[in-house]
Give the backbone structure.
Amino acid sequence: MAKLVYDFTEGNKDLKDLLGGKGANLAEMTNLGLPVPPGFIITTEACRQYLREGAVPAGLADEVSEHLRQLEKKMGRQLGDPADPLLVSVRSGAKFSMPGMMETVLNIGLSDESVGGLAKQSGSERFAWDSYRRLIQMFGKTVLGIDGEAFEHAIEEAKRAKGTKNDLDLDAGDLHGIVETFKELVQVHAGREFPQDPREQMDLAVLAVFRSWNADRAILYRRQERIPADLGTAVNIVAMVFGNLGMDSGTGVAFTRDPGSGQQGVYGDYLQNAQGEDVVAGIRNTVPLQDLEQIDAASYAQLMDIMQTLENHYRDLCDIEFTIERGKLWMLQTRVGKRTPAAAFRIACQLVDEGVIDLDEALSRVSGHDLTQLMFPQFSVDSDAARLTTGINASPGAAVGAVVFDSATAVRRAESGEAVILVRHETTPDDLAGIVAAVGVLTTRGGKTAHAAVVARGMGKPCVCGAEELVIDEDGPRLIAGATVIEEGGQISIDGTSGAVFEGRIPLQQPPIVDYFNGVLDPDGPDTSDLIRAVHRLLQHADERRRLGVLANADTPEDAARARRYGAQGIGLCRTEHMFLGERRALVERLVLADTVPERTAALAALLPLQRGDFIGVFEAMDGLPVTIRLLDPPLHEFLSDDAEVTARISAAKAAGLAPDDRDVKLLAALDRLHEVNPMMGLRGVRLGFVVPGLFALQTRAVAEAAIEARRRGHVVRPEIMVPLVATVTEFEITRRELAAVIAQVAKESGADLAIRIGTMIELPRAALTAGSIGASADFFSFGTNDLTQTTWGLSRDDVEGAFFPAYFKARVFDASPFETIDRAGVGRLIRIAVDEGTRANPLLTVGVCGEHGGDPDSIHFFDEVGLDYVSCSPFRVPVARLEAGRSAVQRAGIVRANETR
Amino acid sequence: MAKLVYDFTEGNKDLKDLLGGKGANLAEMTNLGLPVPPGFIITTEACRQYLREGAVPAGLADEVSEHLRQLEKKMGRQLGDPADPLLVSVRSGAKFSMPGMMETVLNIGLSDESVGGLAKQSGSERFAWDSYRRLIQMFGKTVLGIDGEAFEHAIEEAKRAKGTKNDLDLDAGDLHGIVETFKELVQVHAGREFPQDPREQMDLAVLAVFRSWNADRAILYRRQERIPADLGTAVNIVAMVFGNLGMDSGTGVAFTRDPGSGQQGVYGDYLQNAQGEDVVAGIRNTVPLQDLEQIDAASYAQLMDIMQTLENHYRDLCDIEFTIERGKLWMLQTRVGKRTPAAAFRIACQLVDEGVIDLDEALSRVSGHDLTQLMFPQFSVDSDAARLTTGINASPGAAVGAVVFDSATAVRRAESGEAVILVRHETTPDDLAGIVAAVGVLTTRGGKTAHAAVVARGMGKPCVCGAEELVIDEDGPRLIAGATVIEEGGQISIDGTSGAVFEGRIPLQQPPIVDYFNGVLDPDGPDTSDLIRAVHRLLQHADERRRLGVLANADTPEDAARARRYGAQGIGLCRTEHMFLGERRALVERLVLADTVPERTAALAALLPLQRGDFIGVFEAMDGLPVTIRLLDPPLHEFLSDDAEVTARISAAKAAGLAPDDRDVKLLAALDRLHEVNPMMGLRGVRLGFVVPGLFALQTRAVAEAAIEARRRGHVVRPEIMVPLVATVTEFEITRRELAAVIAQVAKESGADLAIRIGTMIELPRAALTAGSIGASADFFSFGTNDLTQTTWGLSRDDVEGAFFPAYFKARVFDASPFETIDRAGVGRLIRIAVDEGTRANPLLTVGVCGEHGGDPDSIHFFDEVGLDYVSCSPFRVPVARLEAGRSAVQRAGIVRANETR
């Protein structure tokens, strides 16, 4: 049977999985010889076992008894001794810090019998009764589940009776009275007596800490922070030390350097005659840590020493908690300190400059999440703007603009220089122009995986989705939020990071880092901030270290140019569907309605120059870099007129006694024919090539002719063509032959050499499972992880989020949506199979990913691990991908272990 | 480089893959010392290489030259020798017989120069010119692609000029004239001269045979016969022998025993002074083979000897082709003979009785496809009923009845004893009652995987789908077929085997084998036919041999009872969705619309007795056998009222100035909320359990209470519960805990012991990929191969068939629909992974399949191979599954090799 309890002397900082962060670090400090109160740790494994089985693990009680015996021996006091009681705290401590999310009970060991002993030993009746009061209050709330209001109310009553508003005015007698009241409250609310047996107090507190792992707030916090749900918490049982035994006692928190700037030098707060919870409660004002030098020079000197020791030992900024009990300094906690994203970059580089760590380790100390935070526009100051509602924080950043309700208006107003926010029930591909024109998007329906959210994140635009309290009155048009009505053109501000929506304008601040990425801010310029220098330095280092290429998903010359500025090494996914939207719909309709070969040929011919023009622009923007163009993927009906509109036109004609337009009649028939029950799994992708003769040939010709034209204009062009939704090698081979013939024909016509690589998306399980054969025929694989996730899980993104994802998060079926972070066991396994078998069949095969996961930090590490050649992500996420690819390389090289602090 | 040409002396009958069936058997006969004209075979590999690369394989010409040289030496004649030309035939010959589907050219070697030599050697000018005429005609059509009509027309012209209608009246001069005309036709239509170089004739003919592998009719035939598209054909080059050199010559076909009854004794036809093609053309009447004894006693005796030799050698009925050239017998072909399904069973048992083969081998000689054919009702005689149209043959068998256009009418008329055929545009789950009531189904839309087709096949009912020429006039209602109008109640006959639809009644015949399966015909009775005895004997043997269990998919007590009679060893899939249809919809709506817990509880409570009643009936029918009940799977909106109807009611109320019914308003909101873009991948299966509290608990309670009630009535009950659409082990574990708690509760209430196994469908790729974890928690896996195929391929069955399956068959992306026969490379690989990893994690795990593939013969062999414990299929297919499971066991045991003859 595994050991379930560790003494502080038995642990170390690398045992966080088993001992939690707090326990592992207390053990580390103990072994460094620092003054830590003695104690022991119940492991996370004990917690997991308890939560799994609903029963206290066998043997735990005996192990605890043994460690308690040793603790009592070390302290020379017995738990619950009426004459001189040992008191202990029972504290949670998970692998990853979850501040305030779980439970703590102090002063365990006090009882009606021993409170007198504590009074005698401490020399303070008041202290003893206040400690007992605190115990019953914490125990009642935490262990017995009594509403904290009841206790607060009793204290308020006592103060009113005394005619004071200050706790400190309550004397020992008052507190004794409160203790009696508290005990009655326990009896009434919990239906049992407050336990007088100190060991029972301790055991019950331990189980309460175990259970607090699954409190609602803890679950919520883990989901937000992407902490796995199955880790469990350790429990630390520590001899109590008291900062509230007089003015020679006190408690404080400190950082070993400034967590905002990273500058060396202490930084903290101290409070005399207080316990830690008093600092947190903010009842009295703290003093700067420097003032401690005046109050207790010896302790101050010792603390400075300890902090230096810790920084040298952890080679990073640490935060600490300490208590001084009658002039004796005790260390209660340390850990590698949390910091702001900006400070993370600054501190990492400063530690390099100080010679504490090298650049590899510095890179491992920052993250893509940090960098993302730095890139969003922010509201610059608090404002008195009225909050209208809070929706789902679908794409982070802040935006301010005029409300518009349709794409056309968005484009029109934006062209006249106005910042607009597109407000829709939900968006469709037709709203793309509007989203492009807008500075932000607000929808009343949908969640983080809705169309609006996905597109906005792709563009790095703020988006709030699912703001269900808002009503769009189409007749106005206007936006109604309770009593507030905002007409078209009215100003609102949205915060995609929090989901908040405000009436009116809140000043915005574009972070200078975006100017740096855009190349308008020189990272080495004299006025450049430390932050930009640090980001630049670490990104440069990431670029040096990373094995993974970073490409971008971009459909237009503008996006391509931005991707390039942000550091993309090519376009990994250039979608062609937008090239069939807008005014070009009419041409697609001609194609679909063509009855004869000449009609079809004419429709295709009309599309050719438009497609060619699209591609020339992208090739010019990506001079010298590869551009991967995907053949048309979505079902054709997405490009046709709206069913209802056509029906309405036909009805109107009939009502007017006229024959309906022949084209409308044919269109309606086509819409009917093309209607699909499950369009995601219908006639799309490579299948279109078998059903619409000439479609892929047209697109290929456009690519080939565009390549020749761009080359004529002096550019180096590296086109690649990608076939979507392939399930069998035969589909791919037939399509490949068709494409190759067109390319050869164009090459012949132009007299030019024309090499275009032809590869396939791997986005169906069957493609991954037969990658050995497909790989032998393809030049490259690009994993379409969005569709691959949909089919592997049998989940339609369009449907599931609102329908049952909330229930799934609650039940902890998964902690992160598989559409955000790659599902390693399922989708990831298919990727591994395809990479292994594809490259075995064809050692020259290039493998990459172009699904949304390509820009997700966690997923990037997985892609590196399985040996992909590149990730392709939205332009906005290119720097994040560069950074994470570098971090992954460094970690995989084993140069430093992953920084496990969160 | 692989050898591309084999002499007959180098091959044998086991080399069919390489030499094709014809070539391998010619080689076998050659080596048996039978009189086979000398020749050689170009391999299928050469064909495949040619088709793949579009160029003649390197080295082929040299190998052919070498073998031709040997052939000339053996025959003592040179190809194209003007004095005494060697003539050869160039014949196709694939691994599996594809009669008439590919090309043959006879008399290669004749030219303007050598025709005279042939005349001299044969002593017949007319024979020589007729042979040359035949060459140019076959070569023109086959090699040069000239329309055969042109040649026929020229012959007709010549006969008209001569004033005769009989070919035999044309003399040598006439035929010489026709040859000249033919050569002109070649020049005009092919733009080249008829090649005079005999080697060029031969080489071109070989390539034409290669190419004929991909002729439209060959592709179509292969698809129907499920012959793989990538085998290619061999080419046989054989010295010509002539049956048309006078009355001492002739040609014939024969079977070594009667292919209808299996009785020993020759059976064949003979035609004097003729070539094989004349027999096929049916220009002159053949005589029974026995008459040959009178015509040429020596040859007849030799032929009888040879046929005995062949039967002894092949240990099976053989068919042969032979030619007698001036009294000399030549064997031109043999193969294991095709036979009717009934004869297959009879012959197999007769060969056992004769001691030629054992029962294992007999079992391998029949197939599930044969047995299926025997089970369908048939039109008993040809009839003069008018054929209205031919649709898609979606579910085989014949049916006669009154036309009805809706389920309610179908049920009403059926209840009054009338046979009805349900005619719909397409069917939905709501038509289930109508399909059950009808004797057959006819739809104007959809194909073999449409709802109507799938359900009808499941029930073993005839169904014709996609009869697009028929118009349903809803106003009548009536069925319009061109000029014919059939009112409701009018009689039609449908043939689901051919797809034909007739007006009026054609007499039907229920095959007695169905009476045997239903237990009303004693297989050992004195009047029982040989056929039934043979089927019974082989099925009994299959049951003895098979490792695979055979269970049935059945939802009602009636289906369960039938399945049991047909030999099912339990119910592998009892769907519960029909239990929520019909009158119970109102209860489901109550459940969906419940706003409060009491409302929901009440709705569930109302469903409980109904569900319980359903299960009691099934348990009683399956006394002693396992019954696997699947929890509710389809999306809830399938059970709600029709969207359009609710909208109409609301509109009507508004139009009348009334407030719409509150329930309708809520219903519309629910329909809106539950609408899904891709319902296949939405809120269904196990996901429902997370979103509709109490639903699965209700179903589980109904199962548990029904089990206890059935047991109280004296039955042995073996219930199992199956959770659908699981993707993660967590979903399964949470659901399993919920179910186990309900079962324990019911057991406690009833004071009974209650063991119910709980398992899961494996129907998502992710479930298969994580089967190691899921298997550890489950009692059984049941592969839902329908959904697993949909998700693995990203194909929605509802959408794809009409949309692009025809194009995919044409392009040979696949030869059999993956929804009919399991896709081994993709879906099959997932099944292998899940079986291996699931059983490794849990050696007690039971694994089976309940998708439609469970009744498909090819797929059953795969399921046996991967180690499934059972297949579950529709009751109607249970005997087929038993037979195929037995065949698979025998084949896998290596007792006999698979009978490769098709």
The longest strand of chain A covers residues 264-272. Confidence is low (pLDDT under 50) at residues 896-902 of chain A.
